[in-house]
Design the sequence.
């Protein structure tokens, strides 16, 4: 594994740590994870929150099956479609590294607002378009690493450790990449007020230094973490 790949994995770990830091415990709550993958992280979030009911939606059927085995009450479906839940029925909504894959981001945010209970909260994390590593990439004529131009191959940034990788899994292409201001603005348009925004990771620095800089300058961190309540 290259240094850049190790750094990326460590930054993902740091992003998950930051996500948990903004998720207040709600013993007995219902938790909904949008894009729950194989369910392993979903169950970790559920344990942290103290959730009694753990729900998930996952596009890739084999991941959905694994999540079901892990203990998630999961629906295999498209996050651009209406969620199979009643209005105001969920205490906590979580979604990590998913919104960038969704073509219908308005439907995504609208449904979060619809199913969230009054007094509940939602946490969404995604790549940060305004991160320094993306700004530097653009300044030298390279494609920012989270901005994909093909469904078949990753191209445009020779500093990306997955440059040239082919055969991306269905649903894994990044379609929309956000700045923090744009993400909060989209949420506000659909009735969600961002009450907390943090950054996570700071390429190409190692985790300890990156954590400090992300706290000082979240606008240019690698990942965005925002928490919302119903406006």
Sequence:
């Amino acid at each position: 594994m290259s240094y850049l790949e190790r750094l990326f994995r460590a930054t993902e770990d740091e992003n998950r740590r930051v996500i948990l830091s903004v998720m207040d415990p709600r013993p007995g709550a219902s938790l909904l994870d949008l894009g729950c993958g194989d369910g392993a992280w979903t169950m970790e979030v559920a344990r942290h929150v103290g959730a009694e009911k753990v729900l998930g939606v996952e596009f890739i059927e084999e991941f959905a099956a694994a999540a079901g085995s892990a203990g998630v009450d999961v629906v295999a479906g498209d996050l651009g479609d209406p969620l199979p839940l009643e209005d105001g029925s969920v205490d906590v909504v979580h979604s990590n590294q998913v919104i960038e894959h969704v073509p219908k981001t308005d439907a995504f945010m609208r449904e979060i607002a619809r199913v969230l209970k009054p007094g509940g909260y939602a946490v969404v994390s995604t790549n940060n378009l305004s991160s320094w590593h993306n700004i530097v990439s653009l300044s030298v004529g390279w494609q920012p690493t989270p901005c994909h131009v093909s469904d078949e191959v990753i191209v445009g940034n020779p500093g990306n450790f997955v440059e040239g990788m082919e055969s991306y899994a269905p649903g894994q292409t990044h379609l929309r990449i956000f700045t923090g201001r744009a993400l909060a603005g989209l949420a506000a348009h659909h009735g969600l007020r961002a009450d907390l925004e943090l950054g996570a990771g700071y390429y190409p620095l190692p985790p300890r230094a990156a954590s400090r800089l992300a706290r000082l300058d979240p606008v240019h961190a690698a990942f965005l973490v925002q928490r919302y309540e119903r406006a």
